[in-house]
Amino acid sequence: MIYKLLFTLLILASFNSDAKGTYQAPDEFIAQAFSEKVPDPSFVWVKGELKQHIEHILQHKNQYRRIRFWQQGQRSVWVLKEIGKEKPITVGIVIDSNKITQLKVLIFKESRGWEVRYPFFTKQFNQLSLIKDNQLSDRIDSISGATLSVRALRKLARIALLLNINIQQPALEK
């Protein structure tokens, strides 16, 4: 009986430790997003109305003063972070013609909610755009036990789409 318990605890401990970590370096994600040479990074200053919109999405004070992005034609790439429950989740987002073409969890440090990194979940974001009140154009299904991680990814998707619109029409930063 004690051996079964120890074996089960050992498996759970190793499984949980594998869930945390770096799945892909941000630089590798950015390089994969562009078929040719990676463009030089640009920056969006987060101020004024743009800052208010981001804080409304985040539902807390904005941590960003400026956000780095890479753009080539209609394609932009964003690497953003948001707290899941207690620790940051780093996500790479590719936007083409104002629609998400890829969303990928790059770094995950939480002890729970790691299921959001799998393609069965992240594929839901493909082809989404922003609609009224900076909402996503379609529903994202949740994952039981990963509610806060799911919320973090939804927020980051909305922010990346908002920022992408802003770099095309910079009126929000005034």
Summarize the structure.
The chain is an alpha+beta fold. It has helices at residues 2-19, 26-33, 48-58, 119-122, 147-168; strands at 21-22, 42-45, 66-72, 75-83, 88-96, 99-108, 130-131, 135-136.
Written overview of the protein:
The protein is α+β, with helices and mostly antiparallel strands and 174 residues long. It has one domain. The chain is 36% helix and 26% strand. The strands form 2 sheets. The protein has a 6-stranded antiparallel β-sheet, sandwiched between helices. Helix 3 runs antiparallel to helix 5. The protein starts with a helix and ends in a 6-residue tail after the last helix. Residues 5-18 have low confidence and may be disordered.
- What's the β-strand tally? 8
Poorly predicted runs: 5-18
Structural class: alpha+beta
Strand ordering within the main sheet = 1-6-5-4-3-2
> What is the element string, with H for helices and E for strands?
HEHEHEEEEHEEH
- Gyration radius, to the nearest Å? 18 Å
Strand content: 25-35%
Q: Give the CA-based shape.
A: globular
Q: What distance separates the N and C termini?
A: 67 Å
How many helices? The count is 5
Average pLDDT, rounded to a whole number, is: 87
**How many individual domains?**
1
Helix content: 25-40%
Q: Biggest sheet, open or closed, and with what strands and sense?
A: 6 strands, antiparallel
